[in-house]
Amino acid sequence: MPDNFRIALVQPMSHVPPGDDKNVADAVRYVEQAAAQGAQFVAFPETYPGPWRMPARFDPTEAMTEAAKRCGVYVQYGTLEPIDEKAATAYNLLMLARPGGGAPGKYRRTHPPGPWIYTGGPHWEFQYVAGNEFPVFETPYAQVGLAMCSEVYMPEVARALALRGAEIIFLPAGTDKRKLWTTWRQLIWARAIENLAIVVTTQNLFGPAERGLAMVATPEEVIFESTKPGMFIVDVDLERVRDLRGQRDGVSSSRDNGVKAGVLSQWQRPEMYDKFFPKGAAR
């Protein structure tokens, strides 16, 4: 498995409902441009290209899987999985379309419990149902985990992915973070630090006054970030991540390492998990 690969990080000016179907053609063009610049992965924001509301008026999966196969790249994108049209229920998905074709990998957002998070706002409108699985996807470049937006505030999500082998975690977000921007940025890096992983995020923009957060964080440094719209090409090297994961922490490790090695193995105490949140404890 090679250590080096290239990510195209897309922070688009997105079309809002009811015109969100226009995002699909834009997304295909971004995939084509990314492939032309040698990217192996393309990362889009949460629920991009859409749809954003129930009932779902379109499904981008065919277009995304076709573009991934034709262009020879992995495409991380977002959409909805309708459950009940009358009840307006749906899973919020992150998908990983593959260059080899076939059904894309799927992550159903797990946190928080639904349905309030996607109701009453200007963009999303559906009754969100939480998923219950933390899949990790094998690629020739990295073990890939997917998480979504404010799940960055739930460290258990990224840890579950890392413990399942994820080396790179795509954690795309939805919209302008406003007063949350600083803490959000800090937590993206924190998830990389504590999981010895590379964490990638980006978001939708809806106007020139909005501030984005496209970012690639490694355990020891933030190697890219931008608040502006566009597509950004970032070269990623997993050699250091794999080295840190293979090390054992020691009393003198801080002379050589900017993070704690061994946190996914040496530092773990699985027998304590039930004590962290005892079964039957009040919430």
What do you see in this structure?
The protein is of the alpha/beta class. The protein has a single domain, classed as 4-Layer Sandwich (Nitrilase/N-carbamoyl-D-aminoacid amidohydrolase), CATH 3.60.110.10. Helices cover 22% and strands 24% of the residues. The protein contains 6 helices and 13 strands. The strands form 2 sheets. Strands 1, 2, 3, 4, 5, 6 and 13 form a 7-stranded mixed beta sheet that branches. A hairpin with a 7-residue loop joins strand 4 and strand 5.
In short:
The protein has 6 helices and 13 strands. The chain is α/β, with parallel strands linked by helices.
Please tally the β strands and state the result: 13
| The top level CATH class name | Alpha Beta
The dominant shape is globular
CATH architecture: 4-Layer Sandwich
Q: How many individual domains? A: 1
Estimate the helix proportion, in percent.
10-25%
List keywords for this structure.
six-stranded mixed beta sheet, alpha/beta, about 280 residues, Nitrilase/N-carbamoyl-D-aminoacid amidohydrolase, single chain, seven-stranded mixed beta sheet
